[in-house]
Glutamate-1-semialdehyde 2,1-aminomutase (Bordetella genomosp. 7), 427 residues
Amino acid sequence: MSSNAQLFDRACRSIPGGVNSPVRAFRSVGGTPRFIKRAQGPYVWDEEGTRYIDYVGSWGPAILGHAHPDVVEAVRTAALDGLSFGAPTKAEVELAEVLIERLPSLERVRLVSSGTEATMTAIRLARGATGRAKIVKFEGCYHGHSDSLLVKAGSGLLTLGNPSSAGVPPEFVAHTLTLEYNNLQAVQAAFDQHGADIACVIVEPVAGNMNLIKPAEGFLQGLRDVCSRHGAVLIFDEVMTGFRVGPQGVQGLSGVTPDLTTLAKVIGGGMPVGAVGGRADLMQHMAPLGGVYQAGTLSGNPVAVAAGLATLRLIAQPGFYEQLSRQTLRLADGLQQRARAAGIPFAADAIGGMFGLYFRDTVPASFAEVSDSDTDAFKQFFHAMLDRGVHFAPSAFEAGFVSATHDDSVIDATLDIAEAVFGEMKK
Ligand SMILES: *Cc1c(COP(=O)(O)O)cnc(C)c1O
């Protein structure tokens, strides 16, 4: 048996930083990442055989809990018929039809293999369809790792942003305007100045990549109005929120209809599936019908599609989201009560099967506010919980996820452990 520490040492000799996606490396909390050997329901087990209650959920996909038997069976059955064909399949048509049926804003949908591909494609499509170059995004929203989206806000409201990654030439983000989340006035000002050049606004309609931040009353409708007025495409990036916050994503909860939607995570049920969908007249611009190029060797992969279809079928059961929301709220409220009883500045928020934990007095509404939380307290909390068998995301700036298998006994066990941890933190 190898320990997590031994495996991490070994990993670092063959993989940069020992991980295949940076947040897994525990850099913002310190310590050694757990190497997961297997997972079932609400639990993951590491290579040392230690069991953890898991609130990472593969960063969103595991909405049914890990290794749901029906999903695993669907994957096994599909695999027996071949892993990939590079030709159309009936199952991918079924997945497209299910997505269109569930999300009223979707008239056509193209399957890809990740959220990054979906957002990159949506932006190219918006630019191709409008013939405009500029895009608007919001500080703290993450839309995958394509060049023009790796940008941080400049110092002034309408100054150009800077690349947030080495290897992205400033010219590549020169058309990306980065504005403050929940600040409609900034959006209005950007359109006043650049309206005729703005192809699209892309937004996480509930932000889940700067911890959890909900849209302020009227923010999404305001984006809808300003985009319609200026002929810009409104893109809801529902890669995280789609089928996670409710049966129709944030668009269903808010009643605001985007022109394009990007999806991934839950729709793949733990396998690599992404999607971009929306208005037929916009989607018509994609190759082979139109001039916007997009392709993928493994797009609509039959094994991945089988996992997605099985997942979408199971989450359509009556009462699924009521139960998921109830359990998530029970966790968030329970943690807040116990932290505050221990005198620790703490707030929590939840929507559907997503939650946010903040070591500050109030729920934040922007990147600036969430950045103003006690990250040392978070680190202490994270490690103390991990030592006692509860695995939260290893960063104060990530949302958490609850699955359908997090029943009362799992949530209560978490809250009991948290009460002990908060009590110790006070000292
Ligand atoms: C996870 C995520 C992405 C990127 O998806 P990948 O599958 O990791 O490429 C894009 N947008 C949002 C909102 C996400 O949460």
The domain at 4-67+318-424 is CATH 3.90.1150.10 (Aspartate Aminotransferase, domain 1). The first strand starts at residue 36 and ends at 40.
